[in-house]
Amino acid sequence: MLFHHLIPKMKIVGFIILIMIATQKENETMEVVFGSGCFWCTEAIFKQLKGVVDVSPGYSGGTLKNPSYEEVCSGKTGHAEVVRIRYNPDKIDFEKLLEVFFLTHDPTTSNRQGADIGTQYRSVVFYTTPDQEKITREIITRLSESKVYQRPIVTEVSRLGEFYEAENYHQNYFERNKNTSYCQYVIQPKMDKFKKVFDEFLKK
Known about the structure:
Elements: H1 7-27, E1 30-36, H2 39-46, E2 52-60, H3 69-73, E3 80-87, H4 94-103, E4 112-113, E5 116-117, E6 123-127, H5 130-145, E7 156-159, E8 163-165, H6 173-176, H7 181-197
Parallel strand pairs: 6-7
Antiparallel strand pairs: 1-3, 1-6, 2-3, 2-8, 4-5
């Protein structure tokens, strides 16, 4: 048989290519940006999920370029406190991310989450693909028709524009400041409830 001596090498090369394709797919990520109140809480929650590769607190949805935390807190820039989530869709699907998003904040309060009041605390999904937009709107419709909430859902759904990463001291805030009163009395109870509901989806 012609080239029969090359067959073993071709099999090895083919196997290596399959491994490379699988590895590339394993590392493929997508991103979405969520705003659900204080980004310290939102970051802490989504960092726990299997399939989530990276979570970065930041600002989006406003008009001022490179806003500071103080400028965003003034409510004059139009930005929301958000987190950019990079995730592997083969390990966690977008619907699961949305489920966590809607169950870990109140999407019926306009420009407010608990004691945090202002447009920077609004409920918002900044999508990056048409599929994300479609799924988000379908989920909102489903939740509304099922009357999961007593009040109408006011979550904003918009295409992601500019995302500005927050200052370094906001990054990984909960892990670095667990002993502060805000983390103990606001974030920790929220984390405890979240972990009970989504235990099987958490990184171990």
